[in-house]
Amino acid sequence: MDSDSSNPAAFSLPSISLQTISHLSESIPNLLQLPNPIDKSPYYHPNPAFYISSSDVLLRQILFDLSTSSSPLLAYHRAGPRSQIRFDPATVRAAIVTCGGLCPGLNTVIRELVVALWDLYGVRQIFGVQAGFRGFYSCETVELNPRIVHDWHLRGGTSLATSRGGFDLDKIVGGIEEKGFNQVYCIGGDGTMRAAVKIFNEIQHRKLKISITGIPKTVDNDIGIIDRSFGFQTAVEIALQAVHAAHVEAESAVNGVGLVKLMGRNTGHIALHATLSSRVVDCCLIPENDFYLEGEGGLFEFLHQRLKKNGHVVIVVAEGAGQNLIPRTESQKAEQDESGNQVFLDVGPWLKSELNKWWKRDHDGELFTLKYIDPTYMIRAVPANATDNLYCTLLAHSSIHGVMAGYTGFVSGQINGNYAYIPVEEVASAKNPVDTKDHRWAWVRSVTNQPDFN
Ligand code: ATP
Ligand code: MG
Q1: What is the pTM (predicted TM-score) of this model?
Q2: Which residues contact 194 (CB under 8 A, 6 or more apart)?
Q3: Which pLDDT belongs to residue 46?
Q4: Which listed residue (220, 282, 374, 388) is catalytic?
Q5: How many structural domains comprise the chain?
Q6: Which of 63, 346, 405, 411 is deepest in the core (most CB within 10 A)?
């Protein structure tokens, strides 16, 4: 980029690179085009500026250094209703599937997909696919309407049931075709997004008029590009209750230790946010920052100092932390779950046992109380809080607008506070690790005084 260093005002913006998403018109000749029926919906009051045009874009990054940025700025299509739609609502057969683990807000997304398809676009054939991807070929689908789903946002879990594994591309695409679905809404985590890419490619290959979209679900907030995933804020809120309980237990004992394991296999966002918002955590252990137990600068030394000074400590450990420290048997090394993910060893009980052994070894005879809390299933199972409920609604509506407009192979997500359509293969490979070099991790270090374990 050219710049005049003597005149800061002379910086010019780098060019913009638009991350385009696929459209059914690329593979379907003479694709139908109709005016958007939202005009007639009592919920929306369109004006000329209401509809989003294909030239409306969002920048992925809003902070950059003009003196060093030379690569093009990535931009995505803005989400929202288009003035023209590519599906006749009377012929739409929409399928909704939930895959992977539970996350607060799953039922809200399903509910809002059903209600908005029905109320905004007049779609009447909406189906729930049961028990994850295998439901496309091994179970009956359930017909959904606003009356059935009206209170689903108040329930945790997924009323469609979910599962891992069962990914058989031929059978899934065959099931989609056989059941006559032409819109497929996949709600799930990273694995589900990778599966959606394969289904999308196969549908493209077969030149079918089927639009497929992903709505990323990850309670751990481990998906990149988007601001956050739905359910994350609820998860932090419930995690905080566990952290406060651990604090009460620790404070009420002599040499009391409260140990809380929080979700986060690859990323420590929940642990980090719970630590920062609770103000009672002495040590936060996350997968992105290796730690060790023994010796100078290790966890035991730090805990001993804190116990001497404060009489109690609270430790938060993310489930993916310390995996390199936990001894693995040969069979555990090879073990995978049904979806092919590496099985994580349970860091909570392991750390609890190591702490008890350490105390007995080095401080035998001195009082010591360790209380371990694992709130994982409580966190996953609660309904979404108000903020997440709203977020789920906007994600569901954005997905429907994109699909009705004929886009396919995309994900709806919030980027810098606005909603965008992102190619699903980009989301499937985008990670969101905690940046241990940035100010938030420095902030964790300052509120906990924990060692850096370097
Ligand atoms: P969670 O956040 O709970 O991990 P997830 O979507 O990552 O959610 P998985 O169990 O890994 O959960 O995957 C969900 C579904 O996607 C499963 O049916 C699985 O078989 C399928 N899947 C996962 N990874 C792939 C892949 N690489 N290719 C095809 N299908 C996949
Ligand atoms: Mg996953």
Answers
A1: 0.93
A2: 428
A3: 62
A4: 220
A5: 2
A6: 411
285 and 179 inside one domain: no
User: Quick check: is 2 in a domain?
Assistant: no
Rounded alpha-carbon distances, angstroms, from residue 319 to 16, 257, 287, 323, 347: 39, 18, 8, 8, 6
Q: Is 222 contained in some domain? A: yes
Among protein residues, the one whose CA lies closest to atom 23 of ligand 1: 191
Provide the CATH number for the domain around residue 333: 3.40.50.460
Q: Domain with 410 in it: what CATH number? A: 3.40.50.450
Q: Which residues contact 149 (CB under 8 A, 6 or more apart)?
A: 107, 110, 111, 114, 115, 159
Residue 340's pLDDT band, with cuts at 50, 70 and 90, is: confident
**Hunting for tokens 């919920």 — which residue is that?**
43
**Residue 404 marked in a binding site:** no
Is 152 found in the same domain as 22?
yes
Supply the residue whose CA is at minimum distance from atom 6 of ligand 1. Answer: 189
Torsions phi, psi for 408 (to 5 deg): -150, 160
Pick from 182, 240, 224: nearest CA to 24: 182
Q: Which domain holds residue 193?
A: 16-229+386-429
Q: Which long-range contacts (CB under 8 A, 24 or more apart) does 412-415 make?
A: 412/79, 412/213, 412/215, 413/216, 413/225, 413/226, 413/227, 414/226, 414/227, 414/228, 415/58, 415/59, 415/60, 415/76, 415/225, 415/226, 415/227
Q: What is the pLDDT of residues 139-190, one digit of tens each?
A: 899 999 999 999 999 999 999 989 888 899 999 999 999 999 999 999 999 9
d(CA 324, CA 320) in angstroms, rounded, equals 9
Burial 350-373 (b: 16+ CB within 10 A, else e): bbbebbeebbeeeeeeeebebbbb
Told to judge if 220 belongs to the known catalytic residues of this protein, a careful annotator would answer: yes
Q: With respect to residue 34, please indicate whether it lies within any of the assigned structural domains.
A: yes
Cα 57 from chain centroid (whole Å) = 23
Using CA positions, which residue lies closest to atom 20 of ligand 1?
165
For residue 83, being part of any structural domain is answered with: yes
